# Entry
Amino acid sequence: MVAKEEVTISEAEAALYDRQIRLWGLEAQKRLRAARVLLIGLGGLGAEIAKNLTLSGIKSLTLLDHSIAVANSANFLIPLENVGKNVVEASLERVQRLNPMVDILTDTENVTAKNEDFFSGFDVVCATRLPVEESIRINAICRKHSIPFYSGDVFGFGGFFFVDLLEHEYSEEVNVPAATLKDGCTAKKNDPSETKTVKHTLNYIPLQAAFEADPSSQLNKRSWQRIKSHFITMKSTDLGSTTVAFVSLALASLYVDLTTGLLMFRSQMKRDPEAANRQSDIAKLCEIRDHILHEMKLDNQMVDSGIFETVFGELSPAAAVVGGVLAQEIIKAVSHKDAPIRNHFFFNGATDFSGVVEAIGF
# Structure
């Protein structure tokens, strides 16, 4: 992790971030002002994250993506005239316009070409649109350099993200009964309360370990019934030449494994499901689903193939929700204010438009 420098807030910054400073305090804003964030992947989800982090007033945001901007993208930062250019270069002007006080940097190289030294220059790394294997590689590097890591994606109506904050200390304001009243009496149940700052520490696990966890065996019955519609398990699965699996399902009443199946699909096919190949891609997703459920000794009928009808493209409403929550989690982690998510967030925009937070692998 890069060395911290003394940060001061100018009068112009104090005026711009006045509401935020009132909300989480000057020290938290100073921490944000010192943060250098790397954002990998600038699709619809990446655009939402970039917008929210830039507005928050971080020190710098590096946008890394080697892909080309296409028409009808969920990335609202790309003007029509920039279609055909590199996606980060096409988005740069609109991102910078959001907050001229934040340094917006671009990198058009493929992330797979980046070595360990490159990642060590950031305070936070957030990865989107990557194969699981690459996310695991980057997470391992981040752990080596004590850098918080986030990884997320949006598929159609749903999305998810994973958080690894290593060992994270944060503070939160809590109301506690006043120790004594003015007359010296001990406070009782209905006595006035006062606000107190309490510090906590949370430990996290790496992405690789999360894949090997079986949440169905670690959660109590009530929690498992609540989460299984979004997520069944994360474990390493060898399917042909690909050894990956991220099981967290899709978007229906049994939303099982969609995310795993989708990330396995991405690793094998070197792309995401495409509407132009709808039937063949659904067939491939069903094949992956059958393999995963067989490994888990579950009935194939448990996950209806109809859930795969909702995973095509990257829909802006889902990207806005997942990107908003993910960016807020980065802000909380950098500022060390309030309890962060530990360690998964799943969003279902197909049925009940709800999000679920679960600690998997602990």
User: Anything to note?
Assistant: The first helix runs from residue 11 to 16. The chain is about 35% helix and 20% strand.
